Amino acid sequence: MSASSKPPVASGLRRKERPENLAERIYIQLKQEIFEFHLLPGDRFSETEVAARMAASRTPVREALYRLQRDGYVDVHFRSGWQVKPFDFRTFEELYDLRVVLECAAVRRLCEREREPSQLDDLKRIWLVPEAERLTDGQTVSALDERFHTMLVEACGNREMALIHAQVSERIRIIRRLDFTKDARVSATYSEHGQILRAILQRRSEEALLLLKSHIEASKAEVRKITLHMLHSARPQSDTSD
Amino acid sequence: MSASSKPPVASGLRRKERPENLAERIYIQLKQEIFEFHLLPGDRFSETEVAARMAASRTPVREALYRLQRDGYVDVHFRSGWQVKPFDFRTFEELYDLRVVLECAAVRRLCEREREPSQLDDLKRIWLVPEAERLTDGQTVSALDERFHTMLVEACGNREMALIHAQVSERIRIIRRLDFTKDARVSATYSEHGQILRAILQRRSEEALLLLKSHIEASKAEVRKITLHMLHSARPQSDTSD
DNA sequence: GAACACACTCTTGAATACAAGATGGCGTGC
DNA sequence: GCACGCCATCTTGTATTCAAGAGTGTGTTC
C-alpha cells in the first residue's frame, strides 16, 4: 500500500515554522477532550490507546500525560493505566478561594496605583457597554469572564502571579462554564463586572474588594449546585470507586 | 563529577517498596545539583551527558528535565541543549511578592479562626524557645525558616494554596539560603518569627500582617544585595546573553 | 589573509524494542 | 457450586534506535 499515511501537515508550512512539537499538540488535544467531556472524570485509558488515537508513538503521549498530571487533570496508576481525575469539590472550592486571594491582592494593588494599566482600557471596552451591545452567548461570555479576571491580575504586573492565576482559572474552567448556561448569570456577570471595574477606576478599594469577593463566591455557589445536579443525573451507573 | 555516583539504593529494600522511579530520582538529584550550585545558572548541558552521569538512558532524564522546565529551573533550546535558567531578579522579586500575598491571606484567615490548628503548636515549639536553646547553624535555620512560612499556609487548610506556596518557596530557596550566611539574620529570624507567632496567637491580625510583610521584605532586600554581590564577584566572564 | 561553503558532529524529537509487574479470566481441586 | 491458583495479556517504565536540524570547524577559493 502507498505511504500516504503521512498526514498533510505541511499545508501552511511557510518560513521556518516548527512542526510545533507532537507532544504539545497531543497535550492540547487531550486537555480539550477533557474539557469537552469527551473524556469524562473517572475514565480510564492507556498510553497505547491515546497514541493510536493521536497517530503517534507513546513517547510524545507520555510527555503530554505527565504534563497533564502535573496540571492536576489526570493520574497514573502504576502499571495499570491512566485516569481522568474524578471531580473533587474540595479541590474546586480551594481553587476558588485561591482565586479570591490572588484577585483581591491584584485589585488592592491596582487601586493604589496612579496610572491605569492599559489592560483596564481593554476591559472597559468589553464590559462597560450599553445593555443593547451586550453579548448573550453563554460560552462566549464565559470565556470573556475568565479573561476579565485574568486581565485584572495581569494588569498589576506580577507575571508569576498572573501565571499561577491563569493555571488556577483554567483548572476551574471545566465547571465554571456550567455557570453560564443560565441567562440570568450572563447578565448578572455584566452588571457585576461593570460595578467592579467602576470601583477600581474610582480607586474605591474596599468597595471593589467586596464586590469582587461576592462575585466570585456567587459563581462558586452556583457552580456547586449545578455540578452536584449534573453528577446526580448523568451516568448514575458510573462508579469511580476502585 | 565522580564516577562513584551509583547509589547503594538496595540497602533498605524490604517489603514491596517500588524502585521509586528512575525519573523521579534523577529529577530530585538534578534539582539538588542546581540548588547546590553544582550546576550554575547559565550552564549548558545535554541529555546524553546527564544520562551518562546518572547511569541511565535518556528517557527518564528527559522526563526529569521536562519537570524541571515546568518548575522554572531549566530551559531547552531546540536541538541545541539545555540550560540552567540564569538568575532573573524580576522573577525572584515577583515570587517574593507572591509569597507575601499568599502568606498574608493565610495569616488573616488564621486570625479569624477560633481554634488553633495543630501546626501552630509545632511552630511554637520551634520558635518560641529561650534564647539559649536557639539553633545557630545557618543552613538549619534557613530550612526551618522556609518550613515556618510553609506551615503558616498549610495551617489555614487550603491544600492548593499550600501547594502553590510550597512551589514558590522552593523556587526562591536557591537564593534565600544566602540570606542565612550572616549570624545577624539568623537571630533576627528568631525574633521576627516569635513576634509574628505571638501576634497570630493573640489574634492581632493587623499587627501580624505588618510584621510578616516587613519580615519577608527584609529577607527580599538582603537576598538582593547578597546575590548581586555574588554575581559580580564570581565568574565575571560568564556571558548569559543570547 | 579573509570569507564563504561544505561536511561532520552533536543535539533534541520521535518511534520502536525490551522488561517487569498488575490484572483478570479460566481451569482445577474440593 | 465455590475458592484458590496459575497463566496469558495488558500496562507502564526504561533502553535503544532512527530522524532531522543546529552549530562548528576546516578547507578552498578569491
Global shape of chain A: elongated
> How would you spell out the order of helices and strands of chain A?
HEHHEEHHHHHH
For the largest interface in this structure, which chains are involved and how many residues does each contribute? A-B, 22 and 22 residues
Rg over alpha carbons of chain A: 21 Å
Largest sheet of chain A: 3 strands, antiparallel
Helix count, DSSP H or I runs of 4 or more residues of chain A: 9
Q: Find the count of extended strands of chain A (DSSP E, 2+ residues).
A: 3
Major sheet strand order of chain A? 1-3-2
Which quaternary structure do these chains form? homodimer
Mean pLDDT of chain A: 87
Q: Can you tell me the residue ranges of chain A where pLDDT is under 50 for at least 5 consecutive residues?
A: 1-17, 235-242
Report how far apart the termini of chain A are.
Answer: 44 Å
Instruction: Please estimate the helix content of chain A.
Output: 55-70%
- What is the strand content of chain A? under 5%
Topology:
The structure is a homodimer of 242-residue chains.
Chain A: H1 22-35, E1 44-45, H2 47-54, H3 58-71, E2 74-76, E3 82-84, H4 89-112, H5 118-127, H6 138-155, H7 159-176, H8 183-201, H9 205-233
Antiparallel strand pairs in A: 1-3, 2-3
Helix pairs in contact in A: 1-3, 2-3, 4-6, 4-7, 4-9, 5-6, 5-8, 6-7, 6-8, 8-9
The structure holds a DNA duplex (30 and 30 nucleotides).
